[in-house]
Structure to design on (341 residues):
């Protein structure tokens, strides 16, 4: 059975006979009757060498990848499972092209699954899984890092020093995070991890989410509130929601409800923010600073936003830590081993 073969592939991965790597753009493994396709945006020589070595032992072959989005659907017909990261989209058209083939399982190596048409896949007998536990701490730490950067001008101060400038007076007006109120929009695993960190440095934590986790308020020492209250009270606002299908949660209307001088952090999805409205608020001072890891277009094209002196920016690296990637790989292995049990 395919499910049994996938479990055997998982055991091969766990035993180190084949590795799941973040940069394994062109690796496809075959273990007995199972074929597992790994698709990411960038090719990496390390994973290719490992795959080539495995191929010599009859465990793995190298596929002609990365696929274009037009070619992906047809390629999926030949594989029992596919692993994708955020840059690869698995849409209804790809699933239609894969019909009649071997595909039974799609794994998103990461948290959000908005790059996959989940319901359409499941309606066509394809299971969709993600790795929600693996990268939560890494993303939360990056959000916290951006909070410190915004409060103490770390990004722009470092940049001006590399230009040979000594701007001590200009950047000597920072402020502490302790005693401030952090509002977290989207209180899932990442939001909860950030909440715990913020409590550890003496911040008050409030959160808004459509789901309330029983007991979490007492456990962390935070409070659920409605969105309008959060926007009005928070000194820092950190966004941790999935893609909202075109709804711009951070827009002119909601920004007007925020405190003057609020700091905004986004490590979730760029399309949840109206970037023009955010830039206007940064220019006016309504938003004191912003820490951004995600953008409406990626690679980012809004130069005026990410080059703003009050923006601390990173190129979508929230989950890009050694530890998170190792955990993502092991969660993928667990999913493959457990498929069909």
């Amino acid at each position: 059975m395919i499910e049994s073969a996938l479990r055997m592939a998982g055991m091969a991965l766990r035993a180190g006979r084949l590795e799941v790597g973040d940069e394994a753009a062109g690796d496809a493994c075959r273990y007995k009757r199972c074929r597992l396709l790994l698709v990411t945006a960038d090719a990496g020589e390390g994973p290719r060498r490992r795959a080539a070595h495995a191929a010599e032992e009859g465990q793995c072959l190298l596929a002609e990848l990365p696929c274009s989005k037009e070619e992906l659907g047809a390629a999926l017909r030949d594989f029992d499972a596919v692993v994708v990261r955020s840059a690869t989209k698995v849409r209804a058209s790809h699933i239609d092209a894969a019909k009649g083939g071997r595909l039974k399982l799609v794994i998103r190596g990461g948290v959000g699954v908005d790059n996959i048409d989940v319901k359409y896949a499941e309606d066509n007998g394809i299971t969709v899984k993600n790795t929600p536990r693996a990268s939560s701490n890494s993303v939360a730490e990056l959000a916290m890092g951006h909070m410190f950067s915004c409060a103490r001008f770390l990004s722009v101060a470092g940049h001006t020093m590399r230009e040979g400038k000594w701007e001590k007076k200009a950047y000597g007006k920072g402020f502490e995070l302790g005693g401030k109120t952090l509002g977290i929009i989207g209180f899932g695993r990442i939001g909860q991890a950030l909440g715990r960190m913020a409590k550890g440095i003496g911040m008050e934590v409030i959160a808004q989410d459509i789901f309330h986790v029983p007991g979490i308020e007492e456990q962390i020492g935070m409070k659920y509130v409605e969105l309008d209250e959060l926007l009005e009270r928070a000194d820092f606002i950190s966004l941790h929601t999935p893609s909202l299908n075109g709804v711009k949660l951070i827009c002119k209307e909601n920004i007007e409800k925020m405190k003057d001088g609020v700091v905004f952090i986004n490590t979730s999805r760029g399309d949840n923010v109206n970037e023009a409205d955010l830039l206007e608020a940064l220019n006016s001072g309504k938003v004191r600073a912003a820490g951004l890891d995600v953008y409406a277009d990626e690679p980012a094209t809004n130069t005026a936003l990410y080059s703003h002196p009050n923006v601390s920016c990173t190129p979508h690296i929230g989950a890009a830590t050694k530890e998170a990637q190792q955990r993502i790989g092991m969660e993928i292995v667990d999913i493959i081993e457990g498929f069909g049990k």
User: Anything to note?
Assistant: The chain has a mean pLDDT of 83. Residues 2-131+322-338 form a domain with the Rossmann fold fold (CATH 3.40.50.720). The first helix runs from residue 2 to 14.
